[in-house]
Every structure is written in C-alpha cells, then in structure tokens.
Amino acid sequence: MKTEVLQPTPQALARSAEILSAGGLVAFPTETVYGLGANALNRDAVLSIFAAKGRPADNPLIVHIQDRAQLKDLCEIPELAPDLMAAFWPGPLTILFPKKEIIPSEVTAGLSTVAIRMPSHPLAVAMLRSCGLPIAAPSANRSGRPSPTLAAHVLEDMDGRIPLILDGGPCDVGLESTVLDLCHGQPCILRPGGVTKEMLEAVLGMEVTVAGSVLRPLRPNEKALSPGMRYKHYAPNGSVTLVEGEEADVLSALRRLYQSSASSQERACVLCFSEHMDDLFDCHPHSLGSKSDHAQVAHRLFHILRQLDQEGMERIFSEVLPPEGVGLAVMNRLGRAAGFHTVSAKQVLADHPI
C-alpha cells in the first residue's frame, strides 16, 4: 500500500471522506496528537486500526465528533456532562459516556462506556464535517511508541500501512486528551492531559479524583477504562530511568548515571529542564523545556523521545516534574515510557560514589 501525505486542500478532504466512508483509515492532526481514524460505526474499519497499529484489542478507542447533536445517537448523557462540554469542547477533553448499541464493542473493548471528544484543530474539524461520520481514532503511531505530533512521525510508523495522512503541521498541546469518567460515581480522571484536575473542579464545583493507575501500572485483572492505561506506552527504543529527589541530588545523580553508562560504551543521554542544560553540558543533555512551564514540557516531550530514537540512544536518564497541573500528564507519559522505573537520587549517589 502506498501512503499519501496531503496538505489540507478541498481535494485532500474529499479524498479523506472517500476513504473513511469506504471503511479505510486516515491519519489526521488534532490539537493533542495525530490520530488514526476509521468510521466508528463500522466494525471491520475499527478492527483495521488495531491491525495497523499492532494494538491489543482490549484497549478502548476514543470517538471523535464535530457536533454535539451526534451524541444523541451514540450515548446517554450524564448530568454533569453539559457543563463540561460547554467549557472544554471543542478541545482536549474526552468524556466517558454510557454507550448505545450502535457503537460496536470493538470500539469500547467490550465496555459499557464509550469515550468521546470534540477536537478543536481546524483540519480535524474539516475532516469530520467532510465525512459526516463519528471517527474512532487512537494516536497514529505503532502501539507502544511515542505518540506523533508531526505528520513525519506518522509516516515513520505507518508508511505502507495506511492510505492517507493529512498534514496539518505540528500539534499544539503535544500530549493526548484528558479522559474523564462520569459513569462510575465521583468524576475521575483516568488519563491526565491539558485539561487539568483544577480546571475541571472549577467548572463542576466539586472534587475530581485521579485514578490510582495514572502513576502506576494496572494491577492484574484491573480493567482499562481508558486508552493509555494498560500497556507500556509512549516508549522510545532506549530504556528510560526517572530520577527523583532534591534538585542538587538529582543533577549529581544524572551525571553519575550518564558517566556509568558511557563508561560501559552505551549510547546515553539525560533529559533535563532548560535551566539545567549548562550544569549537565557533558552528559549529552536534551532540554525538556523550562521547569516553570509544564505546558512547554508537554508540548516537547514526544518530539524529543522520537529524536532520541533517531540518535540511537540506549540509556535515557530523566528529571521529573511535580505531578500537579499539566505536570501530572507529563509524569503519566514519562512514567509509562519508563515502565515506571524510578530511582531515588540519594540511592544513586550512594551506589555510585565518586
């Protein structure tokens, strides 16, 4: 199969609508990351997403719509949902709704809920309007890889696997949407993103909880209610180690871990905040962005992880953010990229004396 990469023209939108209506796949940009879309009401089309990505079938998908009127055919609407939709749609918030029978079980991994969002990226909106379909779309990468924030990232993973990529330039947010569960009692964040716990609480006027699995692996037999929960995700080819502790200890620990790997002839680097690039100049540093600008770190993260693959990095040692605000979303992605391998800076310094 030849994969076309098309700029956003009327002809490209017509081509995307033709492919989606025929049960094919189209990769398209959203404000979060690039998605790999198929007709959400076509079982065979949905199954082709899993095949193209190499994605396990027990990992639910998100359905993308361009008009709230579409909801009446797809789901029931919980009492709290309208206020959230008014505040955050279109935008990077996915809400779990009780699903209707029209949604194939392949979309929801057999769950009774369906995850739905309304993207704000103008090309995503134009594509959805052009095809007139609800579109099931996970991120447009091979399963487990860092999510794509450029059309070039999609092509790297999907060349020859899908017929069309719509190129809408770089994604603004850079991390997947927040997923909020309104179906199982108190509102609960299943996957953090650009819409934060604090923003949701300000609209709802009540506490929003965060699922324990956000910063840990799912336990045996624990169901994945949202994409990005069950498996190692967002991972570069090299192994990632997160280093936590007091700032001075972390910088010293990153240096010693780098030196240990480099002395073993491993291709190693550190991920650090821009404020620490000079301190770690001799450790092949890569900037995550400013430690005071969590949105910048979120925007850069997946791009940097893919860059490390291009550089052939085998060992990656990273600073961490406090898990609050957008920092919670960053640490969810970094944690899963590392398989939740986190070490204490003090322990590293004890194990690697000068």
Features:
5-stranded parallel sheet; globular; alpha/beta; 18% strand; 354 residues; 11-stranded mixed sheet; 33% helix
Compact overview of the structure:
The protein is α/β, with parallel strands linked by helices and 354 residues long.
List the helices and strands and how they pair.
Elements: E1 4-6, H1 10-21, E2 26-29, E3 34-39, H2 43-53, E4 62-64, H3 71-74, H4 81-88, E5 93-98, H5 105-108, E6 113-117, H6 122-131, E7 135-136, H7 151-158, E8 164-166, E9 178-181, E10 188-191, H8 197-204, E11 209-210, E12 239-244, H9 247-263, E13 268-272, E14 285-287, H10 294-310, E15 315-318, H11 326-337, E16 342-344, H12 345-351
Parallel strand pairs: 1-8, 2-8, 4-6, 5-9, 10-11, 12-15, 12-16, 13-14, 13-15
Antiparallel strand pairs: 2-3, 3-7, 4-7, 5-6, 9-10
Helix pairs in contact: 1-6, 9-12, 10-11
Verbal overview:
With about 350 residues, the protein is α/β, with parallel strands linked by helices. Helices cover about 35% and strands about 20% of the residues. It is built from 12 helices and 16 strands. The strands form 2 sheets. It has an 11-stranded mixed sheet, sandwiched between helices. A 5-stranded parallel sheet has the order 14-13-15-12-16, with helices on both faces. Strand 9 and strand 10 form a beta hairpin. Helix 10 packs parallel to helix 11. The mean pLDDT is about 95.
